[in-house]
């Protein structure tokens, strides 16, 4: 997954949407601060389109995003999971 900054303009041009995944070595650790990385522009677009259309998941190359659980899950090993989050930001 690329760590490039990304944002997708939502239908309301006053907002941009960014999807991120938790990149900590152990994303479930409660003792370390969460580290978040941005998905690539293309991944962000795929995810936001699926989310906006009410789909249950978005399929990327190596992972799929479960919107109900807010998880990134490996297409090969369902035990490989990470939290994801969606942030809306006001455009300036």
Strand fraction equals 35-45%
Q: Helicity range of the residues?
A: 10-25%
Give the CATH topology: Signal recognition particle alu RNA binding heterodimer, srp9/1
The ordered H/E elements are EEEHEEEE
Q: Low-confidence parts, pLDDT < 50 over ≥5 residues?
A: 1-6
- What's the overall average pLDDT, rounded? 88
- Specify the CATH class: Alpha Beta
**Global Rg:** 13 Å
Q: Name the overall outline.
A: globular
Q: Cα distance, first to last residue?
A: 28 Å
What would you say this structure looks like, in words?
With 92 residues, the protein is mainly β. It has a single domain, classed as 2-Layer Sandwich (Signal recognition particle alu RNA binding heterodimer, srp9/1), CATH 3.30.720.50. It has one helix spanning 41-52; strands spanning 8-9, 15-22, 36-38, 57-59, 63-66, 71-74, 81-90. Strands 1, 2, 3, 4, 5, 6 and 7 form a 7-stranded antiparallel β-sheet that branches. The longest helix has 12 residues, at 41-52. The model is unreliable at 1-6 (pLDDT under 50).
Topology at a glance:
Layout: E1 8-9, E2 15-22, E3 36-38, H1 41-52, E4 57-59, E5 63-66, E6 71-74, E7 81-90
Antiparallel strand pairs: 1-2, 2-3, 2-7, 4-5, 5-6, 6-7
